[in-house]
Amino acid sequence: MASDQARQLRQQGIAAAKAGQKDQARRLLQQSLRLDPNSEAGWTWLASVTADRREKLFCLQKLLEINPNNETGLQALRTLGLTREQLAEQMAGEPPAPAPVPAAPAADGSGIPILDAQRVAEAQSQVDMVVREYLAPIKSDVNYVQKTRRRAGERDVVYLRVYVAIGVIVLLFIVGIGGYSLIVNTPEIASILFAPTPTITNTPAPPTPTPTNTPGVTPTPSPTPALTYTPSPTVPPEIKAAPQGVPPTATDIYPPVSARTMRGAVLLLDVGKYGEAQPTLAAERALTGAQFDPSPYYYEAVAWLEAGDTDRALRVLQEAETRILDEGLPDSAKPLIDTGFAQVNLQLAQDALDDGDDEQARAYLAIVQQRAESAITTDPLLWRPYVLLARYDLLDNKLDEALGVLDRGLAVPQLANNVYLIVEKGNTYLQQDEPDLAAYQAFLALYVDPMAEPAHLLRIKAALAQGDAGLAVIYAQQYLFYYPGSAQGYVLLGQARVMEGNTDLALTAFDQALQGDDSSPAVLEALVQRAALYSQQRRYDLARQDLTRALELSDDDPEIRALRMQAAYDSGSYAVASDDADELLGSGVLPDAQIQLIQARILVDGANDNSTQDLRDALDLLDGIGGNLPASLQPVAEEYRARAHYHLGNFGDALNAIDRALAGGDTGSRHYLRGQILEARDEPEQALREYEWVLTWSAIYPYPFVSDVEARLEALKNQ
Question: I need a surface site. Which of 591, 634, 699, 707 has the fewest CB within 10 A?
Fold first, then answer.
């Protein structure tokens, strides 16, 4: 009973110390130490709330007398600039610190003082009398009358207000006359105030049927966004915004596409609806029998490329090139087809790099360079070859060369306003980790076209890269104003909410992103990021479900499988985690040693009294890992090695392994396991100390095994 009371007083004292109530904490801890003077936790916490240095040194001396290797006490001594020997010398030269002051004895011997009942009653009657006298109404024969006019000083106040009003009117009249005279006689000021200025804002024009990036004809948004842009004085003179009164338009299609059906198909490509665009483009290509037009061939190849069918895209382009050669067409028919070949080969090079085939990738990249340069030489007004050359340089990590190619395109007067080139330059700056320059490119693109979707996306990403979560939220909301329902917009909004620490709103944003079409790449990104938030919240089942869906959408992306393996293990879905581990071995996504550690943990966590073979298999895996794990995971491996040996009855090996794990860091599970091992080795006193450690820290961390620790502790004390 005394130990239970001491533990209860100690826990109350620790709670008071955490709440900053040092006096109460000191009193409670002193009482607990009177009942249990050998408690390391009690002396540790009492040292943290002592009134002066001498008392702190006394507490630390007592703590180190109990356990000379107590790391907390030794660290506190080092903080005070003392060694254990210096502490002993100081304490030997000073009188001992006062012992904990016991409470005045009570009638029942509990140590709690009890006031005399008669004195309490007398004090209560005196308080009642004082309260009655205070609440009694004041006796007076004075009659009060409320006066509404002719009050004292009222006339003077009225006169003062009149004088002030007349003075203000005269002053305003004089200032107005003087200001008007100054403006009329100063042409420079008059031009500043009255001349028209080219202030550009993001306020959309009145609703008019305007072709947009959405298929069909939709009304231009009319509500004014929350933010407006004022052109910076550093806008290059060659970049011009749309004339006043003319609604801004996206960068026009080049070469021009005259057929309305063809233009609609190109707009479908811009919004990612490649399957819907393909039939129209194939029909338009079939109509070019009499007179060759490269546009249907090029855009149909792009549609197949974006749909993932590079072979079909190459066949369409080869058919076009055959016609050009057979019919002896002029060079003007070739640049767009060269651009298509460069675009397809760039994708093939990327695929080869992903597969680790560097030699084949270089062959594809050589074609990209040759075809793109040929297209620019023949028709420098095509903007896409510049972008392809820049991405070619980016694959080789030549960021400066990529910027040089884009500047080369922007130097063409007809391309100075090209939003795609400006945004590509901003994205290149982002890869160079220069978000400020990227944000400026986004500003320039929005100056040219306030509704340019790539520019809005670039601006949000730049704000995220700058670490400005609030600005990123505003930009994402403005983008969603123009493009409601955009999965990419909600993903970026969710990322901004995560950055500002608002998890609930981040989850809401990712939920909105997942309302879109599963074919959108943003849906896959939303699933992965929502799973990460669920894992942070320890909602591992939901994280595993999101990653399972993401794995299906990504065609078994091994990186997503690695994330699902961890989420499945954390959620207790050991069968799923084990299957994922088997698939990931040798993939290179994670080191095999880390995957084998997960496999060993699954075997140990799922073991029971009849799982001897599983435990031995786990030990074989851990022995095979050796020293191939990162330093942060070595203690985890030792802890599971100790658990396997403990269940197999190898208590000596188990104790050595858990000691190595504890050398890498204290955790409740490791002290709990060490207590179990010591108890099995018939070392009850040391086991008691381990269980006491767990109970002390359970006030801070809600260990799931606290009830078992309490039961074991009680059983050992009863022995």
Answer: 707
